[in-house]
Design brief:
Distance between the termini: 26 Å
Helix content: 40-55%
Order of helices and strands: HHHEHEHEHEHEHEH
Number of strands: 6
Number of helices: 9
Shape: globular
Strand order of the largest sheet: 5-4-3-6
Structural class: alpha/beta
Largest sheet: 4 strands, parallel
Length: 224
């Protein structure tokens, strides 16, 4: 269950920031059924690129985006590909959802939104005080950094130092603080440990409960 306890001070700060940056947060129902998104927002999306740093792209956190790099709206069926038996060697049909047409080109922008948005609308995360921490081997922290920027929060990306330079460059461009941990994509333990350390360092870092649960389970299994 998501904790919906209201922190009035944090919520006031978040509402002020949202007003300053003209941020409108979509509802979960709108993300599931983008045909319910108000027409005035749909019209504005026609001039917004899929990767643009524009809060309107929060409404594109859905599997049902049109396959367009700019100006796309929505479609009834999610983007997918079907893997034929000639390729898989099996008799059954295999259908795979395609995350390319999410902002950032990866569906993890949705997973990270699901962690941050409830804390923003309750005020538990205070944009004037907290930093959103995203430990990941790559795509999750990319989605988190992107959402943080759109939502007016400071993002902190934690990822292995041997990930691509392109990924690091993009994270810096989006305005994230970047922490590089030892190793490569298989060095998950190090990113979680770094997340624990930064959270306790000065009290401003915010690691969501979902990430804490994943980190605790991983470190319990493989050793802190």
């Amino acid at each position: 269950m998501i904790d919906l306890t209201i922190n009035k001070t944090g919520l006031e700060h978040n509402l002020r920031k949202a007003k300053e940056n003209r941020i409108i947060i979509p509802t979960i129902a709108q993300m599931q059924h983008p045909e319910t998104i108000p027409e005035k927002i749909r019209e504005r999306l026609k001039t917004v690129g899929l990767w643009d740093v524009d809060p309107l792209n929060l409404f594109r956190i859905t599997w049902k985006n049109e396959a367009k790099e700019s100006g796309g709206l929505f479609q009834a069926v999610p983007n997918y590909i079907e893997l034929p038996p000639a390729l898989t060697g099996g008799p059954c049909r295999i259908v795979a959802l395609v995350g390319k047409w999410f902002p950032t080109g990866c569906h993890k922008v949705g997973a990270s939104f699901g962690c941050l948005a409830p804390r923003l609308v309750t005020g538990q995360f205070d944009v004037n005080r907290h930093k959103a921490v995203w430990p990941s081997t790559g795509n999750y922290c990319r989605g988190g950094a992107f959402n943080s920027r759109l939502l007016g929060a400071q993002g902190v990306a934690i990822l292995p130092a041997e990930m691509s330079q392109e990924r690091f460059d993009w994270l810096h461009e989006i305005g994230a603080e970047v922490i590089a941990t030892p190793g490569c994509e298989s060095n998950v333990k190090e990113i979680f440990e770094a997340g624990q350390h930064i959270e306790t360092a000065d009290g401003t870092a915010y690691v969501t409960d979902e990430i804490k649960a994943a980190a605790d389970a991983y470190l319990k299994q493989y050793g802190a």
